[in-house]
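Q: Aldehyde oxidase, please. Structure only.
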Amino acid sequence: MNQPPAADELVFYVNGNKIVEKNADPEVMLLSYLRKKLRLTGTKYGCGGGGCGSCTVMVSTMHPISKKIQHYPVTACLLPICSLNNMAVTTTEGIGNSARLHPVQERIAKAHGSQCGFCTPGMVMSMYALLRNYPEPTTSQIMDALSGNICRCTGYRPILDGCKTFSKGCCLNNEVNEGPQKKKCCLDRRDEENDLPELKNFPLLFNEKEFLPLDKTQELIFPPDLQLALAGKQRMKVFQGERVTWYSPSTLKELLELRTKYPEAPLVMGNTNIGLQTNLHGVFHPVMISPINVHDLYTVAPDDAGITIGSAVTLAQLKTILSESVHKLPKHKTKTFQALIQQLRTLAGEQIRSMATLGGHIASKLAISDLNPVLAAAGAQLNLISKGSQRRLQLNKSFFDEAVSSGISPNEVLLSVFIPFTEKEEFVSAFRQAQRERNAYAIVNAGMRVRFGEGTDMIQDMDIFYGGIGSTTLSAKNTSQALIGRHWNEEMLQEACRLALEEISITPSAPGGMVEYKRTMTISFFFKFFLQVLQNRNKTVTLSGGATEYLSSIKDFDTEIPKTLQIFQEIDTKQPARDPVGRPIVHLSGIKQATGEAVYVDDMPPVDQELFIAFATSTRAHAKILSIDETEARQVPGVVDIIRAKDVPGKNAVDGQGTLFSEETVECVGQIICAVVADTSDHARRAATKIKIAYEDIEPAIITIEDAIKYKSFYEPFKGIKHGNAEEAFKTADHILEGEVHICGQEQFYMETNSLIVIPKGEENEFDIYVSTQDISTSQFAVAAVLGVPSNRIMSRVKRVGGAFGGKVTKPAIFASAAAVAAQKTKRPIRCVLERGEDMLITAGRHPVSGKYKVGCMNDGKIVAADVSFYTNAGCTIDESFLVLVVALVKMDSAYNFPNLNCRAIACKTNLPSNTAFRGFGFPQTGLVTETIMDAIAIKCRLPSHKVIQ
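A: Structure for Aldehyde oxidase:
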């Protein structure tokens, strides 16, 4: 039997303090290490996938080639501690505290940029990392720096207001266009603000002059002993964890030997893709290889044909390298670079761009890759190396084709990527359509290239690649080949669109759905490419329909830097100083939230002998449970017990939420069947996935509102309101309109997932509960019921909640009850902190609604009668659905007069997790139905909408 190699010590710094970890586990992420080992709880868990930014910290290191100190933001939830050897980490606790604030912390807090405060430390560190590199950033740089951070409370305005006080430059970085289309710099727009009357007479939300100045000489320096260590000769490091061995080679030779020995082991650099697989999808790798210290992977070598960029270069560094090349080289050579820069501006957030590498991005072959379509269309080549051989591989259709084994071999390493220059008659464009401009996966993206014969418009060569519409990047090779030799005109455009639609087949089961939309985007992108090429070649657009309206489709939307204007009533001079009304008072916890000192439930110190709980949930929508096999789960190290329905001493149900632990049947995916209690959260979650549950499906599985109507699956009683006589009034109407409106559900996405601690007191069945909830009594009564004790034996506490929006009114009672049963059985404290996916699966969110209306109106748009039915998808239990129906009914008429109205609201019982309270509580859905009615009347009567509304 092979013995694991001897483990090395991991050395890194956190907030200026040296950390020597003798038992570094490759499965431990920096976020977990900071919070659990170092007790630096200012860095928060928000999603576990690097998408929300609440775990942002700054990493400092020495570049292996230039030897310059680099500072960049990272998401700690994806960063293995083993990748931090000889690096320095800075968290919000390391830059300041409530007694000695850092200017970033002060300005975000005093500009009112913190509400629930859970995202605030991440915002602080994103801005801090920017300031370490650019002490006087432009407002555009601030927007980029915060693009990877989500805030669910503030709407971002006060955060940006506070951060923009550091900006001394203009929004366009002093690069204002010349000529008649010249844009106004933000610094030149102040005269517009001065046009507002008496603005100076109104108070401000904050006074910039009172803020602490930014003094870059007072920041933490990169530790000198790390500089010495990095300057000396490096050797391979090996870290041995509970299940995983981590190799960090220092030379290319060592890397190739490891690759030969462990061909199936993943190469880990930024861990942005592999980390998602392991954190969120349970993928396991017993061996990991991290070539982060192999200098050969950081090459940047331009030549006469193009530029070779090392595979370990991060996407943020790539953007800088390409931008510098664009400024130095003739414009016609850098068209591919410009297209890549365009994609890099919006790819993920700044943290992920600072972690993810070019090589990792390419090798992952992600279907939604924004760079691969452009690189492939531009003719990029991969330089591959293995032990004893080296080759160059074209990034083309064969590389992405899953049915063809012509990619990177398991024993090979992607050394670098060659990106060729473009010729004068060659054009490259990138396209991307997403639900948001930044930090969002593309729905569809594309890279397109065409080369013409010199002095002609005849196509010599062409490549078209699409992303987001299949399981990998797709090539329209047949379309491209068929167009070679054609002239660049409208006939070619029509033929290209027809061929592309035929070649790029999108199946109904394609990831992400939206099949027709994606089909439209494939030809829309080519149409834009056609126009861009004509414009860049200074050719007149002569298409049937008019040149002007077509050219508007290729104009970039100007991303305006958000500019706020707030006017407040001046405070009366006679108002007592102690009277807070109307005064811009800083949030009482704002400073502590910015410094990471504010304590949320999971920030509380460990309780002696505490255990962690994780849930095994249903994978079927409607089924009978045949068996539950705990054998494998109990073999996971650290497992203490498994909690099931038989362990509940009181009522195995939570009012409004249904059964607590399902034993016989399940009514939705995500319904709790049992819970694992273990010594760590990782052990508990790992064991929960090992529980084997056998099912027998029960028909029907009712999923949609339409299904519920078909099977008459409703909760009773129905709700309704009625006034006037709608039936008679309809007879007097000039027009009767009927229609339907369908509104999808929504996830609250509170930044802090459901979190709680249950502590048995040891006498008379008394328990203390610390729970993140909006309704503490609901959790208290629920726990008392499942334990079968009086509610006065349950002491519930809540100090602050990291966002809720209605989602933490009733749902925390489920988790508190389950944890209380575990605490009662084990007689030990239980900590429950849900993972993001688990939270979203079990708790559901806003109710989907179908509204059916019949409305009668006169020719002048006046409403005489309406008959409206609302159907809500309540899910498998009633929860708050009846209250949502009542609000929907009461708010249905909104601000309008419906003199005769019949309105009913019906809660549909379906096999989905039960939906619950959500900000607006039914009004957003019913409001959309009402506004749809008003628009329908305006269209029918041929009147402006505002006339009908009046």
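A: Brief note, in case it's useful. The longest strand covers residues 863-875.
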